[in-house]
Amino acid sequence: MKRIFEDTATAFSLKSDSELERAYFLFKMIANEPLVKIGTAMTNFALKARLPVDGLIRATVFDHFCGGVSEEDCMNVVEKMWNKGVSSVLDYSVEGKDTEDPLDDALQKTLKILDFVKELDAIPFAVFKPSGYGRVALFQKVSDGKPLTKKEKQEWDRVEKRFETTCKKAYDLDVSLLIDAEESWMQDAADALVEQMMVKYNKEKAVVFNTLQLYRWDRLDYLKKLHSKALAEGFKIGIKTVRGAYMEKENERALEYNYPTPICGSKSESDSNYDKTVAYIVEHLDLISLFSGTHNELSSYKLIELMEQNGISHDDNRIWFGQLYGMSDHISYNLANKGYNVAKYLPFGPVRDVMPYLIRRAEENTSVAGQTNRELELIKKERNRRKI
C-alpha cells in the first residue's frame, strides 16, 4: 500500500511558516518531560495569581490546539479546514463540575452547539461527555447496581433527561452525536443510557455514537453483545473507537481495590484489540457505523486496506477518520486529500477555562514519546522542503 502520510506539503498546507515554527517549538517542549512539568506549574501559578498571561497562552499553545474562545471564533479555522476537505467536531473543552447548575450549563452549551452546526456541512458531528451531564459518583453508584436514595433517583432522572433532550435534538436536526467515554467504574451506567438512546433514535441510521476505549480488553465483547441486541431489537449502532485516556488511573485503582485491571497487558495487545474491533465493525457495516478516532498511522492504513478489500468507497458516510486539532495533520489532511471522510476534534472555550484540557494534552503527548517525535520529524521535513 502506498504510504500517503509522508506528504508533508499536503499535511501542513494550512500552516504559514510562522505557524510551522510555533508547532516545532511546542512539540520540542512537549518532548521534554521536565520542561512540561515546569511549564505546567508556572502556568497554573500564573492563572491562580490572575497574572495577565491570557494573550501569551492564546498566541502559543491555545491557538495550536484550540479553535477559539467561542463557536463563532472557531469559524475561521472551521472554514480553512473545510476548504481542504476536513470537517470539524466542536468540542466545548471546559471541565465540568458536580453541582447541578454546571451540569445544566453543559446541557445548554451542547444544545446551543447543535443549533449552531445544524446547517453547516463542515461540522457533521456534535459531542458531549457523560460526566458533563451527571456526577461521577452517581454514575458509579448506578454502574455498581447499588440502590439509590430518593434524592439520588431524582438526580438520576435529571441525568437521563439531559441525555434524552440532547439525543432527540440531534435526531431532529439530523446531526450525528458522539458521546465520549469515561473511566471504567462509571462507564456501565453511561453505556446503558447511550444504548437507550440508540434504540430510540438509531432506527434508520446511526445518529447516536458510543465510544469504546480499546485499551480495555473487554470492549470488543461488549460490542458483540450490543450487535446481537441491535439485530434483535432493530436499531443501528454508532461507535467511535479510541485507544483510551485513563490508563494510569485505571491501573492504580485496580491495584488499590484489588481487582483485575480492565486495561490490556501491553501496548501491542491494545493495538491488536483496536484493529480487531475496527475490522469487526467494517465486517458488519450494514448495522454499525464507525468513527475511527486514532493518531496511529498503522491503524489508519489497516482501515484503508479493509475498505479497499471490501469495496467500500472512500466517502462512504458510515466510516469516518478522526484526529485532534493540532495533532497528526499528516494523517488528517492526506486522508482528506484522497477523498476519505475526516473530522478534527476542535476544542474551544475561554482561554483560562480550557487550560486543564491543554495541560492534559501536553502531559499525554509527553507520555507518548514516539508520537511526539513523529510530529517533530514531519515538521522538520516540511521546514526543509520549504527552504529548497
Tell me the radius of gyration: 21 Å
Element pattern in H and E:
HHHHHEHEHHEHEHEHHEHEHEHH
Structure classification:
alpha/beta
**Number of beta-strand segments:** 8
CATH class of the largest domain: Alpha Beta
CATH fold-level assignment of the largest domain: TIM Barrel
Number of domains: 2
Q: How would you describe the overall organization of this protein?
A:
It is a single chain. The protein contains 16 helices and 8 strands. By secondary structure, it is of the alpha/beta class. It folds into 2 domains: 1-63 and 351-388, no CATH class; 67-348, TIM Barrel (Alpha-Beta Barrel), CATH 3.20.20. The chain is globular.
Summary, kept brief:
By secondary structure, the protein is an alpha/beta fold.
Features:
388 residues; alpha/beta; 2 domains; eight-stranded parallel β-sheet
Give the helices and strands, then pairings.
Elements: H1 8-11, H2 17-30, H3 33-48, H4 54-65, H5 71-83, E1 86-92, H6 100-117, E2 125-128, H7 136-143, H8 150-173, E3 176-179, H9 184-201, E4 208-213, H10 219-233, E5 237-242, H11 247-257, H12 267-283, E6 288-293, H13 297-309, E7 319-324, H14 329-337, E8 342-348, H15 351-367, H16 369-387
Parallel strand pairs: 1-8, 2-3, 3-4, 4-5, 5-6, 6-7, 7-8
Helix pairs in contact: 2-16, 3-15, 4-15, 6-8, 7-9, 8-9, 12-13
